Amino acid sequence: MTKLTKRIVDSIKPDVRETFAWDDELPGFGLRVKPSGIKTYLVQYRAGGRTRRHAIGRHGVLAPDDARKEARRLLVAVERGSDPSAERKAALRAPEFGKLLDRYLAEHVERHNRASTAAEVSRLVEKLIRPALGTLKTAAVTRQDILKLHGDLAGTPRQANFVLAVLNKAMNLAEAWGVRSEGSNPCRHVRKYPETKRERFLSAAELAKLGDELRRLEIEAREPWPVIAAIRFLALTGLRLGEAINLRWNAVDTQRGCISLAAGETKAGARTHPLGSNALALLAALPRSKGTPWVFPNRASMAALSPHVMEKAWARIRKQCGFSDARLHDLRHTVGTVAGQGGANAFQVRDVLGHKTLAMTDRYVNRATDPVRALSERVGAEIAAAMEGRPQPEVVPLRVGNATD
Protein backbone atom coordinates (compact mmCIF):
# COMPACT_ATOMS: atom_id res chain seq x y z
CA MET A 1 0.00 0.00 0.00
CA THR A 2 1.42 3.38 -1.04
CA LYS A 3 1.01 6.34 1.28
CA LEU A 4 1.99 9.79 0.06
CA THR A 5 4.79 10.85 2.38
CA LYS A 6 7.28 13.66 1.97
CA ARG A 7 9.98 11.21 0.95
CA ILE A 8 7.78 9.64 -1.72
CA VAL A 9 6.47 12.99 -3.01
CA ASP A 10 10.00 14.41 -3.22
CA SER A 11 11.13 11.33 -5.17
CA ILE A 12 8.48 11.67 -7.91
CA LYS A 13 10.04 13.11 -11.09
CA PRO A 14 8.07 15.18 -13.66
CA ASP A 15 7.30 13.71 -17.05
CA VAL A 16 6.62 15.30 -20.41
CA ARG A 17 2.95 15.00 -19.56
CA GLU A 18 0.92 15.77 -16.46
CA THR A 19 1.02 12.76 -14.12
CA PHE A 20 -0.82 11.72 -10.97
CA ALA A 21 0.08 9.71 -7.88
CA TRP A 22 -2.75 8.44 -5.67
CA ASP A 23 -2.74 7.71 -1.99
CA ASP A 24 -3.89 4.17 -1.20
CA GLU A 25 -4.63 4.97 2.44
CA LEU A 26 -7.20 7.70 1.62
CA PRO A 27 -9.00 6.99 -1.66
CA GLY A 28 -9.51 10.18 -3.64
CA PHE A 29 -6.43 11.93 -2.23
CA GLY A 30 -3.61 12.42 -4.69
CA LEU A 31 -0.78 14.45 -6.15
CA ARG A 32 -0.67 16.11 -9.58
CA VAL A 33 2.77 16.65 -11.09
CA LYS A 34 3.15 19.17 -13.93
CA PRO A 35 5.91 18.88 -16.57
CA SER A 36 7.31 22.05 -15.03
CA GLY A 37 7.85 20.15 -11.77
CA ILE A 38 5.04 21.87 -9.81
CA LYS A 39 3.40 19.35 -7.47
CA THR A 40 -0.14 20.00 -6.20
CA TYR A 41 -2.22 17.97 -3.72
CA LEU A 42 -5.83 17.37 -4.77
CA VAL A 43 -8.97 15.35 -4.14
CA GLN A 44 -10.92 13.47 -6.79
CA TYR A 45 -14.61 12.71 -6.25
CA ARG A 46 -17.96 12.34 -8.04
CA ALA A 47 -20.72 14.92 -7.85
CA GLY A 48 -23.71 15.38 -10.10
CA GLY A 49 -22.81 12.21 -12.01
CA ARG A 50 -19.38 13.58 -13.00
CA THR A 51 -15.83 13.05 -11.77
CA ARG A 52 -14.31 16.25 -10.41
CA ARG A 53 -10.89 17.27 -9.15
CA HIS A 54 -10.28 19.96 -6.58
CA ALA A 55 -6.80 21.38 -5.87
CA ILE A 56 -5.85 21.62 -2.19
CA GLY A 57 -2.45 23.30 -2.33
CA ARG A 58 1.13 23.02 -3.52
CA HIS A 59 3.69 20.63 -2.11
CA GLY A 60 6.23 22.60 -0.14
CA VAL A 61 3.60 25.05 1.07
CA LEU A 62 1.60 22.14 2.46
CA ALA A 63 3.10 19.06 4.08
CA PRO A 64 1.57 15.72 3.00
CA ASP A 65 -0.08 15.14 6.40
CA ASP A 66 -1.71 18.61 6.34
CA ALA A 67 -2.92 18.06 2.77
CA ARG A 68 -4.33 14.65 3.80
CA LYS A 69 -6.30 16.24 6.68
CA GLU A 70 -7.80 18.81 4.32
CA ALA A 71 -8.56 16.10 1.76
CA ARG A 72 -10.39 14.05 4.40
CA ARG A 73 -12.45 17.13 5.39
CA LEU A 74 -13.40 17.82 1.79
CA LEU A 75 -14.34 14.23 1.08
CA VAL A 76 -16.57 14.16 4.16
CA ALA A 77 -18.22 17.35 2.86
CA VAL A 78 -18.78 15.67 -0.51
CA GLU A 79 -20.52 12.79 1.24
CA ARG A 80 -22.87 15.38 2.74
CA GLY A 81 -23.71 16.86 -0.65
CA SER A 82 -21.02 19.49 -1.08
CA ASP A 83 -19.16 20.09 -4.34
CA PRO A 84 -15.85 21.90 -3.52
CA SER A 85 -14.83 22.37 -7.15
CA ALA A 86 -18.14 23.92 -8.16
CA GLU A 87 -18.13 26.12 -5.06
CA ARG A 88 -14.65 27.42 -5.87
CA LYS A 89 -15.65 28.21 -9.46
CA ALA A 90 -18.77 29.98 -8.21
CA ALA A 91 -16.65 32.00 -5.80
CA LEU A 92 -14.34 33.06 -8.64
CA ARG A 93 -17.34 34.08 -10.75
CA ALA A 94 -19.02 35.83 -7.82
CA PRO A 95 -19.30 39.63 -8.02
CA GLU A 96 -17.19 41.98 -5.98
CA PHE A 97 -18.77 42.98 -2.69
CA GLY A 98 -19.23 46.48 -4.07
CA LYS A 99 -21.61 45.06 -6.69
CA LEU A 100 -23.52 43.18 -4.02
CA LEU A 101 -23.84 46.42 -2.02
CA ASP A 102 -25.34 48.09 -5.10
CA ARG A 103 -27.92 45.32 -5.36
CA TYR A 104 -28.60 45.42 -1.62
CA LEU A 105 -29.30 49.17 -1.77
CA ALA A 106 -31.48 48.92 -4.88
CA GLU A 107 -33.47 45.77 -4.14
CA HIS A 108 -33.79 45.92 -0.37
CA VAL A 109 -32.98 49.29 1.20
CA GLU A 110 -34.83 51.46 -1.32
CA ARG A 111 -37.86 49.15 -1.34
CA HIS A 112 -38.22 48.18 2.30
CA ASN A 113 -36.58 50.84 4.51
CA ARG A 114 -37.99 54.19 5.52
CA ALA A 115 -36.49 57.16 3.66
CA SER A 116 -34.49 58.32 6.69
CA THR A 117 -33.15 54.81 7.32
CA ALA A 118 -32.31 54.35 3.64
CA ALA A 119 -30.38 57.62 3.63
CA GLU A 120 -28.34 56.59 6.67
CA VAL A 121 -27.64 53.11 5.30
CA SER A 122 -26.49 54.62 1.99
CA ARG A 123 -24.22 57.04 3.86
CA LEU A 124 -22.59 54.24 5.85
CA VAL A 125 -22.15 52.09 2.75
CA GLU A 126 -20.46 54.85 0.76
CA LYS A 127 -18.39 56.36 3.57
CA LEU A 128 -17.29 53.28 5.53
CA ILE A 129 -18.22 49.89 4.06
CA ARG A 130 -17.43 50.24 0.36
CA PRO A 131 -13.93 51.74 0.89
CA ALA A 132 -13.02 48.91 3.28
CA LEU A 133 -14.58 45.88 1.58
CA GLY A 134 -15.92 46.90 -1.83
CA THR A 135 -13.13 45.42 -3.96
CA LEU A 136 -13.18 42.00 -2.26
CA LYS A 137 -15.06 39.09 -3.79
CA THR A 138 -18.36 38.69 -1.99
CA ALA A 139 -17.64 35.05 -1.22
CA ALA A 140 -14.15 35.94 0.02
CA VAL A 141 -15.18 38.39 2.76
CA THR A 142 -14.19 36.76 6.04
CA ARG A 143 -15.03 37.24 9.69
CA GLN A 144 -11.60 38.78 10.14
CA ASP A 145 -12.50 41.44 7.56
CA ILE A 146 -15.69 42.22 9.47
CA LEU A 147 -13.89 42.26 12.81
CA LYS A 148 -11.28 44.68 11.49
CA LEU A 149 -13.86 47.13 10.15
CA HIS A 150 -15.94 46.86 13.32
CA GLY A 151 -12.79 47.36 15.40
CA ASP A 152 -11.73 50.42 13.41
CA LEU A 153 -15.05 52.03 14.40
CA ALA A 154 -14.75 51.25 18.12
CA GLY A 155 -14.58 54.96 18.93
CA THR A 156 -18.18 55.39 17.74
CA PRO A 157 -19.87 52.23 19.10
CA ARG A 158 -23.40 53.10 17.96
CA GLN A 159 -22.23 53.70 14.39
CA ALA A 160 -20.05 50.58 14.50
CA ASN A 161 -23.05 48.48 15.52
CA PHE A 162 -25.20 50.01 12.77
CA VAL A 163 -22.49 49.14 10.22
CA LEU A 164 -22.45 45.57 11.56
CA ALA A 165 -26.24 45.37 11.19
CA VAL A 166 -26.01 46.59 7.58
CA LEU A 167 -23.31 44.04 6.78
CA ASN A 168 -25.27 41.26 8.45
CA LYS A 169 -28.34 41.98 6.34
CA ALA A 170 -26.31 42.26 3.13
CA MET A 171 -24.62 38.93 3.83
CA ASN A 172 -27.92 37.20 4.61
CA LEU A 173 -29.23 38.44 1.25
CA ALA A 174 -26.03 37.22 -0.43
CA GLU A 175 -26.88 33.73 0.82
CA ALA A 176 -30.50 34.06 -0.32
CA TRP A 177 -29.33 35.21 -3.77
CA GLY A 178 -26.89 32.29 -4.05
CA VAL A 179 -23.78 34.50 -4.00
CA ARG A 180 -22.51 32.95 -0.76
CA SER A 181 -23.05 29.42 0.54
CA GLU A 182 -25.70 28.76 3.17
CA GLY A 183 -24.63 29.49 6.74
CA SER A 184 -21.48 31.37 5.68
CA ASN A 185 -22.44 34.84 6.97
CA PRO A 186 -19.13 36.19 8.38
CA CYS A 187 -20.97 38.59 10.72
CA ARG A 188 -22.02 35.68 12.93
CA HIS A 189 -20.38 35.71 16.35
CA VAL A 190 -19.15 39.31 15.94
CA ARG A 191 -20.22 40.94 19.19
CA LYS A 192 -21.78 44.38 19.23
CA TYR A 193 -20.27 47.09 21.38
CA PRO A 194 -22.17 48.15 24.51
CA GLU A 195 -23.96 51.43 23.86
CA THR A 196 -24.39 54.04 26.55
CA LYS A 197 -28.07 54.81 26.99
CA ARG A 198 -28.74 58.54 26.94
CA GLU A 199 -31.14 60.02 29.47
CA ARG A 200 -30.72 63.63 28.29
CA PHE A 201 -33.71 65.95 28.34
CA LEU A 202 -34.06 69.71 28.55
CA SER A 203 -34.92 71.27 31.91
CA ALA A 204 -37.37 74.14 32.26
CA ALA A 205 -34.43 76.56 32.42
CA GLU A 206 -32.93 75.10 29.23
CA LEU A 207 -36.30 75.27 27.48
CA ALA A 208 -36.48 78.95 28.45
CA LYS A 209 -33.01 79.53 26.93
CA LEU A 210 -34.08 77.69 23.79
CA GLY A 211 -37.24 79.77 23.51
CA ASP A 212 -35.26 83.01 23.92
CA GLU A 213 -32.73 81.96 21.29
CA LEU A 214 -35.43 80.95 18.78
CA ARG A 215 -37.18 84.30 19.24
CA ARG A 216 -33.89 86.17 18.77
CA LEU A 217 -33.09 84.23 15.60
CA GLU A 218 -36.59 84.87 14.33
CA ILE A 219 -36.39 88.62 14.92
CA GLU A 220 -32.92 88.90 13.41
CA ALA A 221 -33.72 86.44 10.59
CA ARG A 222 -30.54 84.52 11.40
CA GLU A 223 -32.08 81.14 10.61
CA PRO A 224 -34.75 80.26 8.01
CA TRP A 225 -38.26 80.37 9.48
CA PRO A 226 -39.03 76.72 8.53
CA VAL A 227 -36.04 75.56 10.62
CA ILE A 228 -37.14 77.59 13.65
CA ALA A 229 -40.74 76.44 13.27
CA ALA A 230 -39.68 72.80 12.90
CA ILE A 231 -37.64 72.94 16.12
CA ARG A 232 -40.61 74.44 17.99
CA PHE A 233 -42.87 71.77 16.54
CA LEU A 234 -40.49 69.00 17.63
CA ALA A 235 -40.37 70.42 21.15
CA LEU A 236 -44.17 70.63 21.41
CA THR A 237 -45.04 67.25 19.90
CA GLY A 238 -42.19 64.82 20.58
CA LEU A 239 -42.30 63.65 16.97
CA ARG A 240 -39.26 62.06 15.41
CA LEU A 241 -37.24 64.39 13.18
CA GLY A 242 -38.22 62.54 10.00
CA GLU A 243 -41.89 62.57 10.96
CA ALA A 244 -41.84 66.35 11.44
CA ILE A 245 -39.80 67.51 8.46
CA ASN A 246 -41.67 65.19 6.06
CA LEU A 247 -45.07 66.49 7.19
CA ARG A 248 -47.33 67.63 4.33
CA TRP A 249 -50.19 70.08 4.63
CA ASN A 250 -52.69 67.50 3.39
CA ALA A 251 -51.85 65.40 6.46
CA VAL A 252 -52.85 68.21 8.86
CA ASP A 253 -56.45 68.05 10.12
CA THR A 254 -57.13 71.23 12.10
CA GLN A 255 -60.78 70.27 12.65
CA ARG A 256 -59.91 67.06 14.44
CA GLY A 257 -56.72 68.49 15.89
CA CYS A 258 -54.34 65.85 14.57
CA ILE A 259 -51.93 64.89 11.82
CA SER A 260 -51.80 61.67 9.78
CA LEU A 261 -48.48 59.88 9.49
CA ALA A 262 -48.10 57.41 6.63
CA ALA A 263 -46.51 53.99 7.07
CA GLY A 264 -43.30 54.98 5.28
CA GLU A 265 -42.80 58.09 7.40
CA THR A 266 -42.69 56.54 10.88
CA LYS A 267 -41.25 53.51 12.65
CA ALA A 268 -44.58 52.57 14.19
CA GLY A 269 -46.49 52.35 10.93
CA ALA A 270 -49.36 54.56 9.83
CA ARG A 271 -51.02 56.38 12.70
CA THR A 272 -53.02 59.46 13.64
CA HIS A 273 -51.16 61.73 16.04
CA PRO A 274 -53.27 64.13 18.18
CA LEU A 275 -51.86 67.64 18.67
CA GLY A 276 -52.26 70.06 21.55
CA SER A 277 -53.53 73.61 20.99
CA ASN A 278 -50.00 75.11 21.08
CA ALA A 279 -48.83 72.84 18.27
CA LEU A 280 -52.00 73.56 16.28
CA ALA A 281 -51.55 77.31 16.81
CA LEU A 282 -47.98 77.05 15.56
CA LEU A 283 -49.15 75.31 12.38
CA ALA A 284 -51.97 77.83 11.88
CA ALA A 285 -49.48 80.70 11.99
CA LEU A 286 -47.15 79.24 9.36
CA PRO A 287 -47.22 80.56 5.78
CA ARG A 288 -48.15 78.07 3.08
CA SER A 289 -45.47 78.29 0.42
CA LYS A 290 -46.76 78.03 -3.13
CA GLY A 291 -45.48 75.14 -5.20
CA THR A 292 -44.61 72.86 -2.28
CA PRO A 293 -46.70 70.45 -0.19
CA TRP A 294 -44.32 70.57 2.78
CA VAL A 295 -45.17 72.22 6.08
CA PHE A 296 -41.49 72.94 6.70
CA PRO A 297 -39.97 73.52 3.23
CA ASN A 298 -36.39 74.26 2.30
CA ARG A 299 -36.78 77.77 0.94
CA ALA A 300 -34.06 77.27 -1.68
CA SER A 301 -35.30 74.03 -3.23
CA MET A 302 -38.90 73.91 -1.94
CA ALA A 303 -38.25 70.28 -1.01
CA ALA A 304 -38.71 69.09 2.55
CA LEU A 305 -36.08 70.21 5.03
CA SER A 306 -33.31 67.63 5.19
CA PRO A 307 -31.99 66.08 8.41
CA HIS A 308 -28.58 67.53 7.54
CA VAL A 309 -29.91 71.09 7.39
CA MET A 310 -31.76 70.61 10.68
CA GLU A 311 -28.78 69.09 12.48
CA LYS A 312 -26.43 71.85 11.31
CA ALA A 313 -28.85 74.54 12.46
CA TRP A 314 -29.40 72.77 15.79
CA ALA A 315 -25.64 72.60 16.36
CA ARG A 316 -25.47 76.39 16.05
CA ILE A 317 -28.53 76.96 18.24
CA ARG A 318 -27.55 74.64 21.06
CA LYS A 319 -24.07 76.18 21.17
CA GLN A 320 -25.61 79.61 21.65
CA CYS A 321 -27.88 78.21 24.35
CA GLY A 322 -24.96 76.62 26.20
CA PHE A 323 -26.11 72.98 26.13
CA SER A 324 -23.91 71.55 23.41
CA ASP A 325 -24.51 67.95 24.52
CA ALA A 326 -28.23 68.07 23.67
CA ARG A 327 -29.33 66.46 20.43
CA LEU A 328 -32.41 67.30 18.41
CA HIS A 329 -33.73 63.87 19.40
CA ASP A 330 -33.54 64.97 23.03
CA LEU A 331 -36.52 67.23 22.41
CA ARG A 332 -38.46 64.00 21.99
CA HIS A 333 -37.01 62.72 25.28
CA THR A 334 -38.10 66.00 26.87
CA VAL A 335 -41.72 65.48 25.83
CA GLY A 336 -41.69 61.95 27.24
CA THR A 337 -40.08 63.14 30.47
CA VAL A 338 -42.52 66.02 30.98
CA ALA A 339 -45.41 63.63 30.33
CA GLY A 340 -44.06 61.08 32.80
CA GLN A 341 -43.37 63.69 35.47
CA GLY A 342 -46.93 64.90 35.06
CA GLY A 343 -48.35 61.52 36.05
CA ALA A 344 -49.05 59.97 32.64
CA ASN A 345 -48.90 56.20 32.59
CA ALA A 346 -46.58 54.26 30.29
CA PHE A 347 -49.31 53.56 27.77
CA GLN A 348 -50.16 57.25 27.41
CA VAL A 349 -46.51 58.25 27.08
CA ARG A 350 -45.99 55.63 24.39
CA ASP A 351 -49.05 56.89 22.54
CA VAL A 352 -47.83 60.47 22.64
CA LEU A 353 -44.41 59.41 21.33
CA GLY A 354 -45.83 56.89 18.85
CA HIS A 355 -43.81 53.94 20.04
CA LYS A 356 -44.27 50.75 18.05
CA THR A 357 -44.77 48.49 21.05
CA LEU A 358 -48.09 50.06 21.95
CA ALA A 359 -49.15 50.63 18.36
CA MET A 360 -49.00 46.88 17.88
CA THR A 361 -51.78 46.47 20.47
CA ASP A 362 -54.25 48.67 18.58
CA ARG A 363 -55.84 45.65 16.95
CA TYR A 364 -56.68 44.22 20.36
CA VAL A 365 -57.42 47.26 22.51
CA ASN A 366 -60.12 49.81 21.75
CA ARG A 367 -58.82 53.10 23.21
CA ALA A 368 -60.42 56.53 23.12
CA THR A 369 -58.17 59.36 21.85
CA ASP A 370 -59.29 61.85 24.54
CA PRO A 371 -56.68 60.84 27.16
CA VAL A 372 -53.91 61.09 24.57
CA ARG A 373 -55.21 64.43 23.31
CA ALA A 374 -55.42 65.74 26.87
CA LEU A 375 -51.88 64.61 27.52
CA SER A 376 -50.66 66.26 24.30
CA GLU A 377 -52.45 69.45 25.39
CA ARG A 378 -50.89 69.50 28.85
CA VAL A 379 -47.37 68.64 27.67
CA GLY A 380 -47.51 71.19 24.85
CA ALA A 381 -48.80 73.89 27.18
CA GLU A 382 -46.08 73.25 29.76
CA ILE A 383 -43.26 73.23 27.20
CA ALA A 384 -44.63 76.31 25.42
CA ALA A 385 -44.82 78.17 28.74
CA ALA A 386 -41.23 77.22 29.58
CA MET A 387 -39.96 78.33 26.18
CA GLU A 388 -41.81 81.65 26.48
CA GLY A 389 -40.69 82.25 30.05
CA ARG A 390 -44.27 82.22 31.37
CA PRO A 391 -45.43 80.59 34.61
CA GLN A 392 -46.35 76.94 34.25
CA PRO A 393 -50.06 76.66 33.33
CA GLU A 394 -52.61 74.81 35.37
CA VAL A 395 -54.33 72.35 33.10
CA VAL A 396 -57.66 70.93 34.17
CA PRO A 397 -57.85 67.27 33.10
CA LEU A 398 -60.58 66.32 30.69
CA ARG A 399 -63.49 64.49 32.28
CA VAL A 400 -64.14 61.17 30.61
CA GLY A 401 -67.80 60.21 30.64
CA ASN A 402 -69.26 56.75 31.20
CA ALA A 403 -72.29 54.90 29.96
CA THR A 404 -74.58 56.46 32.59
CA ASP A 405 -73.70 60.11 31.79
Write a brief caption for the model.
This protein has helices at residues 6-11, 64-79, 84-93, 97-112, 115-133, 143-152, 157-176, 204-220, 225-237, 241-245, 277-285, 307-321, 329-341, 346-353, 356-359, 370-388; strands at 19-22, 29-33, 39-47, 50-58, 252-253, 258-261, 271-274. With 405 residues, the protein is of the alpha+beta class.
Q: Descriptors for this entry?
A:
single chain, 405 residues, alpha+beta, Double Stranded RNA Binding Domain, 4-stranded antiparallel sheet, 7 strands, elongated
Topology-level CATH name of the largest domain: hpI Integrase, Chain A
- The backbone outline, from C-alpha atoms, is elongated
Low-confidence parts lasting 5 or more residues at pLDDT below 50?
358-369, 395-405
Question: What is the typical, i.e. mean, pLDDT?
Answer: 85
Number of strands: 7
| Proportion of beta-strand residues | 5-15%
Overall number of domains: 3
The percent range for helix content is: 40-55%
What class do helices, strands and sheet pairing give?
A: alpha+beta
Tally of DSSP helical segments: 16
CATH class of the largest domain: Mainly Alpha
Task: Identify the CATH architecture of the largest domain.
Answer: Orthogonal Bundle
Distance between the termini: 100 Å
**Helix/strand order:** HEEEEHHHHHHHHHEEEHHHHHH
Q: What would you give as the CATH superfamily of the largest domain?
A: Intergrase catalytic core
